[in-house]
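Much of what follows relies on a compact textual record of a protein's fold. Think of the row as the fold of the chain written in a discrete alphabet. An example makes this concrete, so a full record is given next.


***
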Amino acid sequence: MDYLVTGGAGFIGSNIAEHLVGLGRRVRIFDNFSSGKRANVRAFADKVEIVEGDLRDPKAVAHAVNGVRFALHLGAMPSVIRSVEDPRTTTEANIIGTVNLLIAARDAGVQRVVFSSSSSVYGDTPTLPKREDMPPSPLSPYAVHKITGEYYCTIFRQLYGLETVSLRYFNVFGPRQDPQSQYAAVIPRFITAILQDQSPTIYGDGKQTRDFSHVENIIEANVLACQAPKEALGQAFNIACGGRVSLLDLVDTVNHILGKNIRPKFDPPRPGDILHSQADISKAEKLLGWKPRVGFREGIEKAVAWYQRQG
């Protein structure tokens, strides 16, 4: 088996799995379908092997990695807010689940594990753009989960020789991102609200900024991370576009694309959220040979078109 994609029925995981299938690769998806959806893999389910299981179950994880060359670890309980509400369950899934995967990968002779981390590890430190050599400053259990996963990847590289690469995603968006979940990300919520002539909700004043990146950029980063040279092993890389867009500008962009003028409504800020985020992506460019191909405006146009097709 060429690739294992944990969380392969989720938003990012299903997009990666479908891309790999399109390249003619053999793909196994491992998911417990707690947040991932069978509908996300329906279009290519006959071209992949689907293993239903939980990352907290060592036996299930060991079965999933058997015979795999590359393990792309996207399986997790996502959302900062969910981790604040339920730190115990999310910690078990995101930290213990990652350790289970690394142990199983080591024991099964997996060549490389690519770990999906997050820009949340930086916290709300004022320095921009964020560089990988900055000390982490997590503000939520979810951020702690991600930086802990990175540390485990580095240690497994150093102690056991398991090849690992960690990718820190900044505000990913694109097809299959669920706007209906109570933990939904901002872009699908804004797009679907404006499509329905409803005011999107902004938590805070809307001046907070994000480095939004379309999922196609994340797909390519994962593929390249599997091919990266030894100098990249055990390290973490920012994966983003290197820019900053405020939530107010995001609303304006979606309105402009749709030819509307729907104004947002404002609620108090949420615990664990950060004010500003922007990535320095030079390290990924140098060691992974990666650059974002889909910019913010193009990505939003693609996303709007996808949600329109979903009705």
User: Anything to note?
Assistant: Residues 87-108 form the longest helix (22 residues). The mean pLDDT is 95. Residues 3-173+213-242+279-293 form a domain with the Rossmann fold fold (CATH 3.40.50.720).
